[in-house]
Write a structure and sequence with these properties.
Elements (H helix, E strand, L loop, with lengths): L9 H4 L3 H6 L1 H20 L7 H12 L5 E9 L13 E9 L13 H7 L8 H20 L1 E2 L10 E6 L9 E7 L11 E5 L1 H7 L19 E12 L5 H10 L2 H9 L6 H4 L5 H17 L2 H21 L4 H21 L6
Parallel strand pairs: 5-7
Antiparallel strand pairs: 1-2, 3-4, 4-7, 5-6
Helix pairs in contact: 3-6, 6-8, 8-9, 9-13, 11-13, 12-13
């Protein structure tokens, strides 16, 4: 559970359902503007913004560096019809070449019409205010998504889907994303995973996402009732790490994302302090050494591929959030160092 740092407005909690449903746009606008103001007030003189790491990572991503190469021992899975219960697992030595740094595409501004299409009342609100407000309101919105239950009744993707909502503490989801990969084998059945979402969160962060249709589902009278929302197909490079990306867009928690990607907590200094300082370099090396002792090289490689998938998703969707890029840069650097330690390879 992600801890909430922004208190909900007391008057909003006590508003009768009929009033809340009748004027959802005013609620959204006031909530975002109030939350953004509180967040900006707390952010003054705060050291939590990854300004140092972001600046250095941008320089690295544009530099020409040779790839990082490793020799990784990967266990080979025997065929299902072969009894290998008493046999020693086969090991394959695999050569892997990974980019030294995760390059950043040229940033693209979120089109203003994307915001206007999903929330006309916010069309003239600065994007930074919308994002700051969503960062405050996001954990509650994410909690609502966790209480959504959806099932498809056929192999055909419907245009709309009726879902059960168990949490009414914040805004209802506006769309159901049907996420799939463009790289599915031609002969294989395409795997589609469903993720409820709020259109304003996607519109405020994803510059490459097409305009989503406006959707304002009515809040149910009580938990456990149903709403109907449109289904939007979304093709991305790595659907398996979309949950981590979606969660981050709602919470903006670098620490939580890094712990998820690395399966280990990361010292805050790695994303809040100057990466060129001796203290941060030492902390990074210690973190990488710990990972190398906790997991074999092939597991570290799989985590690196998950970070790479997250990076490809961010590029495809046009997400330029600095905290997200900082988290990916830190995770990538730690994992490459851990792989270097695990395979006795010197990392340049």
């Amino acid at each position: 559970m992600v801890s909430q740092t922004c208190s909900r407005r007391a008057d909003a909690e006590n508003t009768p359902p009929s009033t809340r449903i009748a004027n959802p746009k005013a609620k959204v606008r006031k909530g975002i503007q109030a939350a953004a103001s509180r967040r900006r007030a707390r952010a003054i003189n705060s050291s939590s913004h990854p300004r140092y790491a972001v600046s250095l990572a941008k320089q690295k991503s544009t530099s020409k560096s040779p790839p990082a190469s490793f020799e990784v021992e990967v266990p080979r899975t025997p065929p299902a019809d072969v009894d290998m219960a008493d046999a020693t697992p086969a090991i394959t030595m695999t050569s892997v070449s990974l980019p030294r740094y995760l390059c950043r595409p040229t940033p693209r501004d979120v089109p203003k019409q994307n915001i206007a299409a999903v929330a006309p009342e916010l069309a003239d609100t600065p994007l930074t205010y919308i994002r700051d407000g969503l960062e405050c309101l996001g954990p509650d919105m994410l909690q609502v998504l966790a209480g959504v239950k959806a099932e498809t009744v056929s192999n055909v993707l419907p245009k709309e889907l009726t879902v059960v909502v168990d949490d009414l503490s914040s805004d209802m989801p506006t769309h159901m994303l049907a996420v799939y990969s463009r790289q599915a084998p031609a002969a294989a059945k395409r795997r589609v995973k469903l993720f409820p979402t709020h259109n304003i969160v996607l519109a405020a962060h994803c510059a490459n996402l097409p305009i989503l249709q406006q959707s304002n589902p009515t809040t149910p009278e009580k938990a456990g009732e149903s709403i109907t929302i449109p289904v939007v197909p979304l093709c991305i490079p790595a659907p398996e790490v979309f949950p981590q990306l979606s969660t981050f867009l709602y919470t903006k928690r670098i620490d939580y994302l890094l712990a998820t990607l690395l399966s280990h907590p990361v010292p805050p200094a790695l994303y809040t302090e100057d990466p060129t300082s001796e203290r941060v370099r030492s902390a990074l090396q210690q973190c990488a050494s710990k990972l190398a002792t906790l997991a074999p090289a092939h597991v570290l490689l799989s985590r690196a591929m998950a970070v790479n998938g997250l990076w490809r998703n961010a590029c495809a969707l046009g997400i330029g959030d600095e905290k997200l890029w900082c988290a990916m840069d830190v995770a990538w650097e730690v994992l490459l160092h851990a792989l270097a330690i695990s395979t006795s390879k010197q990392l340049l």
